[in-house]
Amino acid sequence: MNITRIGIDLAKQVFQVHGVDRTEKVVVRKQLRRSQMLDYFGKLAPCLVGMEACGGSHYWGRELSKLGHDVRLMAPQYVKPYVKRGKNDANDAEAICEAVGRPNMRFVAIKLIEQQVVQAEHRIRTRLIKSRTALSNEIRGLLAEFGIVLATSMGNLRRAIPVLLEDEENGLPGSFRELLAELGEELRALDNRVAEYDARIAQAVQRDDRIKRLLEIEGIGPVVASALVAAVSDAKQFGSGRDMAAWLGLTPRQHSSGGKNRLGGISKRGDKYVRTLLIHGARSALNAARNKEDGRSRWVMSVSLRRNKNIATVALANKNARIAWSILSRGETYRKAA
Question: Helix, strand or coil for residue 18?
Fold first, then answer.
């Protein structure tokens, strides 16, 4: 078989394969078990292999690339228009095979193992923070049932729990004090787990020169820089800084027609986690810009006064993403505005 292009519909155990030759004639349409994948593609001559960017796709991308194949990953929403009939594995594989051959298709870079390890650390850290927030809200809600309302902030809650346990005049029954003590221990355990992951991220900063250079940008700290490098890695996959900002969902959403340009809010496409971190960092930088007189600070403060604080925050996050692209793609260092 002279296969030039293959589409694979990935799954956990059963994979659908659809292949065509140079005349676009279908030459293979079959199912493969997980254990058969590497053996099957190892016997094929190198060809173009397309897959949707989904769970397990980066692993298979790395493994098939080792066998000499040109592997391309695509966002599922770019493949969907090529599905001709009903939804099934065979039709999905055919659509993937057709989509990967389009000259203007946009592809997702295959992640290295090191990138996925860092991303796993960030995901676990995020889950722990969500669990800690949920626990703190539960503690506050339970205390409110006994007429005790605490000031907002995690620090106030941490300081208040030992005081409440020692205060015998606050009306808390003994059985509830035992529950409160257990909840306090659980909260401290989550704090310790989050601190462990923060320490891991700090170690990554020391190992990676790219992260160190990103830290020079106002509004980008260790967590943001680490997550950005793990998500992007080789920024040369983007043609410009605007392309990377658009990939992160930080550019305006368009609804233009008939020569009339209509721009809305940001598109919010792409990596939600990294976009959120960039916006939080930009908000912190905006607050600090009030006491600075450099050109960058004057610009973002003028946007804040002319429009509003939220628009200025997103504009600064967009600018930081573009600067990060220059640093990651060209190996440059950040030059602070005068």
Answer: strand
Residue whose token pair is 């397990």: 56
36/2: higher pLDDT: 36
The pLDDT tens digits of the residues spanning 139-167 come to: 999 999 999 999 889 999 999 999 999 99
Residue identified by tokens 């257990």 is 182
Q: 7 - beta bridge partners?
A: 18, 50
Residue at 276: amino acid letter: T
One-letter amino acid for residue 243 of the chain: D
| Nearest C-alpha neighbor of 209 from the set 225, 231, 227, 224 | 225
Contacts of residue 193, defined as CB under 8 A and 6 or more positions apart, other chains included, come to: 128
Phi-psi region for residue 292, left (φ > 0), alpha (ψ -120 to 50) or beta?
beta
Regarding pTM above 0.85, the answer is yes
The pLDDT tens digits for 28-59 are 999 999 999 999 999 999 999 999 999 999 99
Return the number of other C-beta atoms located less than 10 Å from residue 48's C-beta: 18
